[in-house]
Amino acid sequence: MALQWALALHGVITVLVLVSFLCGHWPIFEGTFVERIHHFITAGAYHYFLRFVEIVFGPRVRNCFLRIEYYSCDRPNPILQLVYLGILGGTYYIIARSSFRYIPGVYVNEMNKYASILAVSVGVILFLLTSFSDPGTVNSKNVSQYISAYPYDNILYVEKECPTCKIPKPARSKHCGICDRCIARFDHHCGWMNTCIGEKNTRYFMAFLLWHFLICLYGAIILVLILAGQLKERKIIFILTVYYGIEKSFYSLFPHVVQWLLDAHNTQIVLTVFLIVISLLLAGFFGYHAQLCFTNTTTNEAFKWQEYLSWRRKVNEAQAIIRAVDGEAKAPTGKCRNPFRRSPFQSDLAVKNNVYDRGIFRNALEILVPLSERRSFIHPKAC
Length: 383
Ligand SMILES: [Zn+2]
Ligand SMILES: [Zn+2]
Prior knowledge:
Elements: H1 2-23, H2 33-57, H3 59-74, H4 79-99, H5 111-132, E1 137-138, H6 143-149, E2 174-176, E3 181-183, E4 188-190, E5 195-197, H7 202-233, H8 236-243, H9 250-264, H10 266-294, H11 299-330, H12 360-368, H13 375-378
Antiparallel strand pairs: 1-3, 2-3, 4-5
Helix pairs in contact: 1-2, 1-10, 2-3, 5-7, 7-10, 8-9
The site of one zinc ion has 5 residues, from loops.
């Protein structure tokens, strides 16, 4: 029983650390312990590590680490792309080596061997499309079309020039310091893809997330079916109930079945848990981005709106307090008060006014067929 609790605790901690590391900076986790863990993993722990290196080895070794950090995080490089290919290839290799011998089995037919190769190949193609296709680079030739396609909302975006590219900055674009170029409808710079996610490659990025979620789920289901097939083939339930006299109920058999699976098929168990954790993370990541796509908001804009609304609320609160102080100074001292009247200290609501949101269907279409690939972009209507 202690082993099961230890495994459950290990699983919870693994999920918490992975979710905090990958998603802790999302607006929904603001102010929570997930954000604090994310900050510790991504900045705090490294800061303490650098201080430790400086004290023990001196400032020259510390500067060496800073140069490695600069190359790894602030310059374009294929490190994470290679890590992705390593994880994908490595996981597939371990699954093939350890589990293909059970195919065909009771619940899994031969076709799944070939289907898995096809599924992984499609995943790699989506990865290459996202990584190496143009994310929507803004240059002197297309900047005027981008400015026509994305009007300034005068809230998040106002007319200005990119100080690096020396060209006007279309609304929704951002200069990426790593790629060193302006990207239309900038979402974020993705280290895993070694490129920006922008107007033209968001569709491939979304397909990549959805496909990898499905691959992980598919892998986990096949592994569970392989284990179920082994239980049946080896008559484990029969042996446990008839030879060992264990009561034939779920609660009595469950710990013994888990024990047998951990002894006989620990590789498949570890792989299944790994695939389920990754598929949950991918589902969360895909869901978050799908919700942004359906409301025609980019990740960059989600942060910008958060900052804008927080600032707007503070301004409103300050104005409400000033009005209340003025009002109290002038208010008549009558006893009858309207109970439905708003408290003078209540501020006006700060609301998101996204001018780019044109309804779910047109927003989704804008991802699938980017504005810059439409006829109206190349031949804009004369005003
Ligand atoms: Zn620029
Ligand atoms: Zn970039």
